[in-house]
Amino acid sequence: PVGAPDKALAKKVTKVGIIGAGLMASQFALLFVRRLQVPVLITDLDQERVDKGLSYIRDEIGKLEAKGRIDGDQANKLRGLIHGTTDKTEYADCDFVIEAVFEEVGVKQQVFGDIEKIIAPDAILATNTSSLSVEEIGAKLEHPERLVGFHFFNPVAVMPLIEIVKTPATNDAALSTAFVVAKGLGKNAVLTADAPGFVVNRLLAKVMGEAARAVYEGTPLLTVEKAFGPLGLPMTPFQLIDLVGWKVAAHVQDTMAHAFPDRFFASENFHKLAELPEVVEKDKSGRVTGWSKAAEK
Ligand code: CAA
């Protein structure tokens, strides 16, 4: 790929650490264990969250077995390679550690700061941030040269792309490892600048934001969906908002609007749209879901 350094510089990855055990982290764990076939560690703040993540991963492995994608022995092997704990010292022998925690620079700096005290000086750190500055996330690291952006897309198992993000500090070993790992995961990787929203979210934020604004300004949601349909993309704007989750989508909008106030007006409209009772449903956690479903009523 364009900009990828010599793959001979890549560090061999023998154990992967994932910070977090939420849905995104669990999807990563499944993908890593399935494609790289190395031990994968997940951790979270408490055992309940870890157990929830582990149970999701085991269920998904069961589904792969039921679909005939893997046999019973392979399923057992994958289950055996996954380990969950609240004990962060177990990251000590991980060569590649990726975070999937809350989209807040301070939170990401904090978790990497804690992990850096535990891992080897040349272990690679990766952030799955979808739109924050990777350089800022690494600003407090003792070794910022080992940090890369490694941005997955929903659904992680099927979307073929990873955006790899280089900061001015990122060294060739970290970058090369990121490309080799992405290839091992069966993904296509592109190298993007460390700019707000990188490439994909910069484009998607325009589509989702203007769709939200059109509805807020009076166009029925279903009309926006129907008008978009013939463009031939696999999902319409509100199906995408459903898929990534309203809060994540709104967060991306906020980041883009903050970075480019003259070009992204939509975050405010997103929040207003979320308050329209006739087009939204809220689940127990307060997450807004069902935009496109509601539009069909
Ligand atoms: N989670 C996990 N797997 C899923 C899934 C989900 N939500 N939805 C579908 N799949 C899997 C299915 O299980 C199926 O897998 P198998 O072949 O192993 O059975 C496979 O995807 C294809 O599914 P379907 O045939 O049912 O459905 P489809 O052909 O309509 O494809 C889709 C579904 C792949 C999601 C397709 O609609 C698509 O590509 N949508 C666009 C998604 C997109 O743009 N994602 C980017 C979001 S932006 C983002 O993620 C950035 C960010 O930072 C917020």
Question: How would you portray this structure in words?
Answer:
This protein has 297 residues and is an alpha/beta fold. The protein has 2 domains: 7-192, Rossmann fold; 200-295, N-(1-d-carboxylethyl)-l-norvaline Dehydrogenase, domain 2. It has helices at residues 23-36, 47-66, 72-81, 105-116, 134-137, 172-184, 200-216, 221-228, 237-244, 246-259, 266-274, 291-295, and strands at residues 16-19, 40-43, 82-85, 96-99, 124-127, 147-151, 161-165, 188-192, 281-282, 288-289. The strands form 2 sheets. Strands 3-2-1-4-5-6-7-8 form an 8-stranded mixed sheet, sandwiched between helices. A two-stranded antiparallel ribbon has the order 9-10. Helix 7 (200-216) crosses helix 9 (237-244), helix 7 packs across helix 10 (246-259) and helix 9 (237-244) packs across helix 10. It is globular. Bound molecules: acetoacetyl-coenzyme A (CAA). Acetoacetyl-coenzyme A binds at residues 130, 153-155, 157-159, 200-201, 204, 234-235, 240, 243-244, 248.
Placed side by side, the strands forming the largest sheet appear as 3-2-1-4-5-6-7-8
- CATH C-level class of the largest domain is Alpha Beta
Find the structural class using helix and strand composition: alpha/beta
Determine the strand fraction and express it as a percent band: 5-15%
Radius of gyration over C-alpha positions, nearest whole angstrom: 20 Å
End-to-end Cα distance? 46 Å
Backbone shape:
globular
The unique ligands bound to this protein are: acetoacetyl-coenzyme A
Low-pLDDT stretches are: none
The averaged pLDDT comes out at 89
Q: Looking at this structure, what is the CATH superfamily of the largest domain?
A: NAD(P)-binding Rossmann-like Domain
Q: Find the CATH topology of the largest domain.
A: Rossmann fold
Helix content: 40-55%
The figure for the number of domains is: 2
SSE string: EHEHHEEHEHEEHEHHHHHEEH
Named CATH architecture of the largest domain: 3-Layer(aba) Sandwich
